[in-house]
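Please, structure for the following, as tokens.
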Amino acid sequence: MKSILLLVHDDDGQSARLNSALDLAHVLGAHLGCLDVTPPLVYGGNNHGGFGDPILLNDEREIEARNKARLTERLKHAGVAWSWEDAMGDMADCVIDRAMLADLIVLNCALEDTVIPDMRTVASRVLMHARAPIVAVPEQAEGFSAAGRALIAWDGQGAAAATMRACIPLLQRACDVHIFMVRNGAGKVDADAAGAYLARHNISATIKIIDDDGVAIDHLIAAESQRWNADYVMMGAYSHGRLAETFGGVTKRMLKDSALPLVLGH
């Protein structure tokens, strides 16, 4: 994982994205590609979550120019290799277009009290179309603890397996790895096989398997993450069917409610 793509835009989630991307670039020895996206037309939100007046394109360009000046000054002293590209258009489309050679994409989960940009929708669309895993971080995240405790939410499906395989370099940096499986009859590969695969990469993982007992899977993942004191959650997305752009299910709820960074793959 030597190429990290970071979405840059002056919004409430930018600090969390930037800090997390820098943490990942440091620990993985990766190049950080910053993609600064200027939407062609944005609307200012109000305190009640509604839409305000349109912000002219020139105003948005000026905002992003100031943002670029601040961030590039920080990047000069960050101790990582980096590059910068400016783009204009839909955020998800721009990220998807540049993600072909990315090993990891850093985005946000849903942002609190922010209508535009809708980062949950951006993350969902990138997940549907890009082939690299994404790291979706909550707005309040101060960084990404790659050397911390990684919980793998295992469902025995192809998306979870592909995400885990792609993220072996990241999991090798974790101090502890925990495979958590909620048994519901849909899994094709059991958690023990996933643990054996990780062991071949010198990654020792504990395994816990439970029945759902009618409880929503995302609630069970959140509870186990808290109990085990996880630093991030890794999981496959859309493992129970593709719901196109208006995706739903566990992935949607995790992006909306997770208090931890998510590593997601499709």
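The two ends are 17 Å apart (CA to CA). Residues 46-53, 239-248 have pLDDT under 50 and may be disordered.
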